[in-house]
């Protein structure tokens, strides 16, 4: 007879308990599922009350992001966009989640990632120019709950390569979101993203991930965008982002040595990203970062 710690009969070389060990009984109640996900993966399944709080925060984040994107026109500096984000956040009695986050503390309230910048670009006094592509990433904290989203803006006419990463990153995100429902395994999201990106000759950044969000800024699970083997199953009540970063050239990111935040493509070719916060529902998903 095999016992829990013996090699699995299937030949995987894993322990039986980590492989084909039969579940004793299926998890049925929310409490059972929540306890299982917390213990096994440190993932928080959100209660109805938390979901409502996250929903409000996400809606506000999307509304503010709308305003930031409208304001992002030729001649405006990314610092002016940051100023606007601070004002709108304050008016809504919320807090900008990026300001002071991490180590070294992120110095601004939004991320503004231009052209070859993959993510975590820092607002400054450079005016937007014809031909730029810009990712604006905005996260707020409202009543203790986090909402995280980003979009691309194009300034005037942009090069074919820049437009390509804008369009492909959007399709990667939205095609990945479309398969979300309970029971889907996390690696399946990356399969969709890689397939779309490859079909347009683009590459998938592997050094940054999508992430659980809601009660904290960055929670479990980490959701890789490049092909992987994460068998974690999506479950009703999970809230996480989908935010693939797609490059025209090489996939590799290099972090700026001076500011320790700005991530650029290693070949200085274009990069695009779009982000939503998602709730897994009983039969699919709800996009939380929509403005209304
Ligand atoms: N909003 C980013 C994300 O999508 C995180 C930015 S962290 C910061 O996860 F410190 F750079 F703001
Ligand atoms: Co995010
Ligand atoms: Co974000």
Short synopsis of the structure:
28% of the residues lie in helices and 22% in strands. The chain is built from five helices and 15 strands.
Name the features.
4-stranded antiparallel sheet, binds cobalt (II) ion, Creatine Amidinohydrolase, about 290 residues, alpha+beta, binds 2-amino-4-trifluoromethylsulfanyl-butyric acid
Task: Describe, in plain words, how this protein is organized in 3D.
The chain has one domain (30-287): Alpha-Beta Complex (Creatine Amidinohydrolase), CATH 3.90.230. It has helices spanning 30-41, 48-71, 78-91, 160-178, 186-199, and strands spanning 95-96, 111-114, 117-119, 133-142, 145-154, 203-204, 210-212, 219-223, 239-242, 245-247, 253-255, 263-265, 271-273, 276-280, 285-287. A hairpin with a 2-residue loop joins strand 4 and strand 5. Strands 1, 2, 4 and 5 form a four-stranded antiparallel sheet that branches. A three-stranded antiparallel sheet has the order 3-12-11, with no helix packed on it. Strands 6-10-13 form a three-stranded antiparallel sheet. With 292 residues, it is α+β, with helices and mostly antiparallel strands. Helix 2 (48-71) runs antiparallel to helix 3 (78-91) and helix 4 (160-178) packs antiparallel against helix 5.
Set down the secondary structure blueprint:
Blueprint: H1 30-41, H2 48-71, H3 78-91, E1 95-96, E2 111-114, E3 117-119, E4 133-142, E5 145-154, H4 160-178, H5 186-199, E6 203-204, E7 210-212, E8 219-223, E9 239-242, E10 245-247, E11 253-255, E12 263-265, E13 271-273, E14 276-280, E15 285-287
Antiparallel strand pairs: 1-4, 2-4, 3-12, 4-5, 6-10, 7-8, 9-14, 10-13, 11-12, 14-15
One cobalt (II) ion (CO) binds next to strand 4 and strand 5.
